[in-house]
Each structure stands twice: as C-alpha cells, then as structure tokens.
C-alpha cells in the first residue's frame, strides 16, 4: 500500500487531507470501508526555519512528536484502491499547542483508543467530530535533529 491516496494522479503524493467537506474527501469520509487506522510510534515536522550546521547549505531540522502513554498510537486515515494499487492518506486537523509553533497550519489527527471503533464504523458526523487536535499535555517532542543525508520517504 502506497502513502498516496490518489495513486500518483496528482502533481504531488496526497499524503494528508483536511477539508473533509470537499466532494473528493467527503466521499471517503462517508464510507466506513474507506476509513483506516494508521499506527505510528512518532511523527515528524520540519522546523520552520533553516539552521547552519556547517558544511554548506543551511538545513531544516526534524522535530519528532510522540504520545507519552502510548508507544504505538493510531492516526485517522482513509484508503482506496487506485489504478496503481491501494493508497492511503492521513487526516489532519488544527494543531495543538505543542505542534503549532513548528507547524501552525495543521497536525495529524491522533485518535484515542476508545474512539477507534467510532472512526472505523461511525457516521460522517462522527468522523468530522473526531477531527480534533490531540491533548498537547499528553505528547512530547524531541529535536531539532539534523539529517546527515537527504532521505526520501516516497
């Protein structure tokens, strides 16, 4: 399964979605069979500015966020079959107070374990209601870390 819910049909991989009322995303949000849980141990956001760490061009740092009481947590997602195979995307929401200084526009929608079934089987209104920032006091961040080489996820 590829991290691109549109299967390469857009200019860039569609790795996250936010506006669930848009027709292309509402169609996925309304269908429980298109919803999934994405397990993570942590997620990365890049620092807003670059840092001079020597050796050439300044680079951005990696800030790694995790959930304090859950070594593995679940993120709200959608998946669908495409011409190039199955693809998935993460659902984003407004950032919490921990993520906002690094990424002021959005963060991924971390779900409480008690909400997993509601995400997977609930109505469209349930999906929209769960698209909320996770409690910042239950998260931690480490960084910035600076990659020693350029790495590509996709």
UniProtKB/TrEMBL annotation:
Classification via Gene3D superfamilies: SOS response associated peptidase-like (3.90.1680.10)
GO MF terms held by the record: single-stranded DNA binding
Top-level lineage group: Bacteria
InterPro entries reported for this sequence: SRAP, SRAP-like
GO BP annotation list: protein-DNA covalent cross-linking repair
Pfam family of the protein (one): SRAP
Protein name per the record: Putative SOS response-associated peptidase YedK
């Amino acid at each position: 399964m590829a991290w691109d819910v549109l299967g390469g049909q857009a200019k860039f991989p569609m790795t996250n979605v936010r506006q669930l009322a848009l027709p292309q995303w509402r169609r996925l949000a309304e269908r429980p069979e298109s919803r999934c849980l994405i397990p993570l141990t942590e997620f990365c956001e890049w620092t807003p500015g670059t840092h001079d760490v020597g050796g050439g061009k300044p680079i951005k740092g990696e800030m790694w966020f995790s959930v304090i009481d859950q070594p593995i947590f679940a993120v709200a997602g959608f998946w669908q079959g495409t011409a190039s195979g199955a693809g998935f995307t993460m659902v984003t929401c407004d950032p919490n107070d921990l993520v906002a200084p690094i990424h002021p526009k959005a963060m991924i929608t971390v779900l409480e374990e008690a909400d997993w079934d509601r995400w997977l089987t609930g109505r469209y209104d349930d999906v929209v209601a769960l698209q909320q920032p996770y409690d910042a006091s239950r998260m931690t961040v480490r960084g910035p870390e600076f990659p020693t080489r350029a790495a590509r996820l996709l």
